[in-house]
Structures are given as C-alpha cells and as structure tokens.
Amino acid sequence: MLRSFLVAALVFTCPLSGRNDSTVQAARSTLMDGLHDRDPKTRKQAVLAIGLIARGEGAVAFVQPMLSDSDVQVRIAAIGSLADLGDPATVPSLETALEKDPVPEVEFAAAKALWLFHNSQGKEALLAVLAGREQARSNPFRREFRKLMRSFSTPKGTMLLAFNYGVGFLPVPGIGAGYAALQELFGEKGFSPRASVAILLAKDSDSTTREALIDALIDRDWSVRAAAVQAIAMRNQPDLRACVVPLFSDGNNRVRYRAAAAYLRLSELGARGSE
Q: For residue 117, what pLDDT is reported?
C-alpha cells in the first residue's frame, strides 16, 4: 500500500521541475529538525547530508555552528561537510578546530579539510603525522591517520578510491557533492551491493538509467533509497528535484536528510540555469 502511494507521488511530482519556495522551506525545515535533534546520530546524518548542497542555499550557515556540537562524531561530520562545500570563508573555523578542539580525531579531520584548501596549517599537521612526530600530535591522532590508510585496503575503501581516481565521476572532497555523506553511506553495516550500483550509475546519461534511479527511490531497502537520492543529486539535473520530495518524510533519516539536501542542491542549480 505504501509503495503504491509512493509510486503515485513520484509520478505526480517528477514532471514539476520548477522551483517551489514552499518546498524549499520544507527541505530547510527537515534539515534544521535533524540538526537540533537530541540524538547525536540523527544530528550527524543531517550534517552529512548538507554536504550535498552547493555553496548556495545557506549550506555553510547550516553546518558551521555544528563545529561546536557536544558530540565528537557530529563535529567530525561537520568538518567533512564543510570540506565538501568548499567555501574558503570556512578556513578560519577549521583552523580553530585544528588548534583548539580537545579531541585528536577532530583535529585530524580539520587537518585533512584544511589541506584541501591548500592551507599551510593543515599540510603541516599531516606532515607531522606522516613523520611520526608524537610531540606534534597525540597517539590517537596518529591512529586515526593509520585507520584512514587502512581503509583503502578494504573492499569499500578500494571502491571509493577507484571511483574517485579511476572512473572519475564520483565526488571528491572540496567540490560540494557530498563526499563525506557518500563515504559514510559506504561504511554503513546495512549498505547493500544494489545500493552501490546506484552510485556507480549516477552520471550515466541514458534515459533508462535515469528512470531506474527514480524507481529506486521507492525501493524497500533504505540503503538503495539513500544511494538513489545521492545519485540523483550528483546528476545535477534540476528537473529531477521534485522526485525526491516524497522522501522528506522517509522513515530512515539517512534517506530523509539526503532528500532535503538534494532538493536544495538541484533547486540552486535550476536557479543558476535560469539566470
């Protein structure tokens, strides 16, 4: 019954390609609800999703306050999303996180983000880790660096590395296409091989692929829905924005927040195209 309802909703909404201000507000409200949720896991998912939005739509303003969140994982997620958004204006905040956050894992995330901005402080911090200078950073900081390196020896890590540098169509940090959100999605325990196919086909221009991704938005598997939303966002086709609107109320927050962020991303692209 629910699937039938969602199919009808998608068929109805997908042709509506124009920007709808009330839907933009609904998308923003969905993300704000997630950012203010009492559960840090929920806040983390909302923060990661915002990395899908390009620099417009107030994305940085959404994320930057989360650098002061009480939860470590939320702060790390905020740094990842700021790296994705690629706004140089966030560099001072990232420098503060590198120098003043008491948690080494947060420091390391800030160093990586700053390096993407060609910032000397970020580069110096990473070089200190590479050289094994314990006086520069604590042991947990070094362990986090080793964990990053080990991730590329795992199937999912290798897949990300191959996509980013081989196939060349997946997002990479610093271009505002949700790399942090994608990396988190690949690491989820319930992430299915079918979901990885949606990501793999994200940039395929064939109309059959486009329809398959739209259909995947109503899949029973949450990871397939989440991957389909992310793939649709990555296609940068504003006329698909309405297809994700029914998922603003999805029962899984990984899907729900990605849908809201995808709508804002595609709305911004549509607005640019009409200028």
A: 87
**Paired tokens of 120:** 């000397």
Q: Is the pLDDT of residue 200 over 80?
A: no
What residues contact residue 101 under an 8 Å CB cut-off, 6+ apart?
75, 107, 110
Residue type, 34: G
Structure token digits, residue 50:
């915002």
Lowest mean pLDDT among 138-147, 154-163, 184-193, 200-209: 154-163
| Annotated domain spans of the chain | 21-269
In whole angstroms, what is the distance from residue 203 CA to residue 169 CA?
7
Which carries the bigger pLDDT value, residue 129 or residue 4? 129
The string of pLDDT tens digits covering residues 7-16 is 444 444 465 4
